[in-house]
């Protein structure tokens, strides 16, 4: 793992770039979130996706009802059993998404310079002259000269399947627009995005709340992706809503930043959320194209310093229909990794794409190559400097564990944790070796029944770069005397050996609690 760690700043022998990469048990340290849908919901395809490296499955409720998603989820559970690969579940809310409803599902052709009227009267048929939309307040929100973008579900940015409109005049509740490019829209729903305009709709709609309290609660979702997060208050409201739903109090909330409004309140949102998803499709429409990369780099850096996962979307759109990504896309994935992204989220590419499994393995391979040249040394120094002194107890232990592991060229860091916080802090310092987070279940009771916690914590680390969870046997507590801990350690090391992460004579760094003290120790494996 470390012998082939290159630094781009040092002279590289060009031929060495072509040397085949060593295969490792973990395809990449960067995680992959796959959206399950029409092309990726059979047990066979989901199993392929898990083997290819997907560790979080996203269920997008903008499409399909609860029964449809339940069937997909049952298939996911079956696939997890057969492949023995852990996978977390993310529910993505529809949010205040504006849509054009095309009941006839006939393709609609629009010609440049023609006019089209957007009307809240949903009784009308969609045609090249009239688009019925699901929102009555558009005429109050826009003015002459504003830009509106309408495209297929999930903007491909391809100019033949999506259209730019410019508002010409507002007539009562209707908005008359001039078409800026010729295009043909297909399908039953087109997403409408008004650029840099505040849409006065709640972030968690009533439909979202219903889905979360029924489907979400019944399936104990690990992550909630909060679409169109615009203010920190949106996250607080979602958090309060989840806290009333039993087990969902443990669900992590990922704020999805999709607009300039979310961008301006980014710092406050980051404080409240458990992680951030940069929805670059919508951001690319709201921001001038030359500003997108800047926001991505700044946002990912802020997430890294806060120790919260950053997820980037829309990286290999062209793989929806093709077996290979474009050069720009391949470079884009690698740059996202070098920026410090924790996970790459695939939308249309796995949802309705023709090659869901190939897309995941291609993205995984690009991530693995980029990780080899990630400048860990510089990153470590920046993070330590940012955190400042005095460090908290946990932070100092975590950074020391990573430093020790790098100095002794350890092949893996093993961290015993019950809340998952210690392991996440270690991952924050981006060690070059995988972190095995051994989650020790805790027993809790509500006076009526016993239950173990730990499964949530283990699955939630599946979105953090470099963190690989395993659930320990609850009979071995994490914090007890050394003796029983040795047996958990043996299980963890056996797991490491079986998966090829560690072999004899390797060094391993262990981070654990013994009594009240946190201990970092280095062991060398015997034959």
Automatic annotation (TrEMBL):
Cofactor(s) named in the record: K(+)
Alphabetical UniProt keywords: ATP-binding, Glycolysis, Kinase, Magnesium, Metal-binding, Nucleotide-binding, Pyruvate, Transferase
Enzyme Commission number(s) from the entry: 2.7.1.40
Residue span, Pyruvate kinase C-terminal domain: 395-515
Keyword Oxidoreductase carried by entry: no
Catalytic activity: pyruvate + ATP = phosphoenolpyruvate + ADP + H(+)
Cross-referenced SUPFAM superfamilies: Phosphoenolpyruvate/pyruvate domain (SSF51621), PK beta-barrel domain-like (SSF50800), PK C-terminal domain-like (SSF52935)
Pathway of action: Carbohydrate degradation; glycolysis; pyruvate from D-glyceraldehyde 3-phosphate: step 5/5
Gene Ontology molecular-function annotations: ATP binding; kinase activity; magnesium ion binding; potassium ion binding; pyruvate kinase activity
Record keyword Calcium present: no
Enzyme class name: transferase
Record-annotated Pyruvate kinase barrel domain positions: 30-360
UniProt superkingdom: Eukaryota
Pfam families per record: PK (PF00224), PK_C (PF02887)
PANTHER family, A to Z: PYRUVATE KINASE
NCBIfam families listed in its UniProt record: pyruv_kin
Homology family: Belongs to the pyruvate kinase family.
Protein name listed in UniProt: Pyruvate kinase
This protein's encoding gene: LOC104236308
């Amino acid at each position: 793992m470390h012998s082939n760690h290159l630094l781009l700043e040092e002279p590289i022998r060009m031929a060495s770039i072509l040397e085949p990469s060593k295969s490792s048990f973990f395809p990449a340290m960067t995680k992959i979130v796959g959206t399950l849908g029409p092309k990726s919901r059979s047990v066979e395809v989901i199993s392929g996706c898990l083997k290819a490296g997907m560790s979080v499955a996203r269920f997008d409720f903008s499409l399909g009802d609860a029964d449809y998603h339940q069937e997909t989820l049952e298939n996911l559970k079956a696939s997890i059993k057969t492949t023995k690969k852990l996978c977390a579940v993310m529910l993505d809310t529809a949010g205040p998404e504006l849509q054009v409803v095309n009941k006839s599902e006939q393709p609609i052709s629009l010609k440049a310079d023609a006019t089209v009227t957007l009307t809240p009267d949903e009784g009308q048929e969609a045609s090249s002259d009239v688009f019925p939309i699901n929102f009555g307040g558009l005429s109050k929100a826009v003015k002459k000269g504003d830009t509106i973008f309408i495209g297929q579900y999930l903007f491909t940015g391809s100019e033949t399947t999506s259209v730019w409109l410019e508002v010409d005049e507002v007539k009562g509740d209707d908005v008359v627009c001039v078409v800026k490019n010729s295009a043909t829209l297909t399908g039953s729903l087109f997403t409408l995005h008004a650029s840099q305009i505040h849409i006065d709709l709640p972030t968690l709609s009533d439909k979202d709340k219903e889905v979360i309290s029924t489907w979400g609660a019944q399936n104990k979702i690990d992550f909630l992706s909060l679409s169109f997060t615009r203010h920190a208050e949106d996250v607080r409201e979602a958090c309060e809503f989840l806290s009333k739903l039993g087990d969902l109090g443990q669900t992590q909330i990922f704020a999805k930043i999709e607009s300039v409004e979310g961008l301006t309140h980014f710092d406050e949102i980051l404080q409240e959320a458990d992680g951030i998803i940069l929805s670059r499709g919508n951001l690319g429409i709201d921001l001038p194209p030359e500003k997108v990369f800047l926001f991505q780099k700044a946002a990912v850096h802020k997430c890294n310093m806060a120790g919260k996962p950053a997820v980037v979307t829309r990286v290999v759109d062209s793989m929806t229909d093709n077996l290979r990504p474009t050069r720009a896309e391949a470079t884009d994935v690698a740059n996202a990794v070098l920026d410090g992204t924790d996970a790459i989220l695939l939308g249309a590419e796995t949802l309705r794409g023709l090659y869901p499994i190939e897309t995941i393995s291609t993205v995984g391979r690009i991530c693995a190559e980029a990780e080899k040249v990630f400048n860990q040394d510089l990153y470590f120094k920046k993070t330590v400097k940012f955190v400042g002194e005095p460090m908290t107890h946990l932070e100092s232990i975590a950074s020391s564990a990573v430093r020790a592991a790098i100095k002794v060229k350890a092949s893996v860091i093993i961290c015993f944790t019950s809340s998952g916080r210690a392991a996440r802090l270690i991952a924050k310092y981006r060690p070059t070796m995988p972190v095995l987070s051994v989650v020790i279940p805790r027993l809790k009771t509500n006076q009526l029944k016993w239950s173990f916690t730990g499964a949530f914590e283990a699955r939630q680390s599946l979105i953090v770069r470099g963190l690989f969870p395993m659930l320990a046997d609850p009979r071995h507590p994490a914090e007890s005397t050394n003796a029983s801990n040795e047996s958990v350690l043996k299980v963890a090391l056996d797991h490491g050996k079986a998966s090829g992460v560690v072999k004899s004579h390797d060094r391993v760094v262990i981070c654990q609690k013994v009594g009240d003290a946190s201990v970092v120790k280095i062991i060398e494996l015997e034959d």
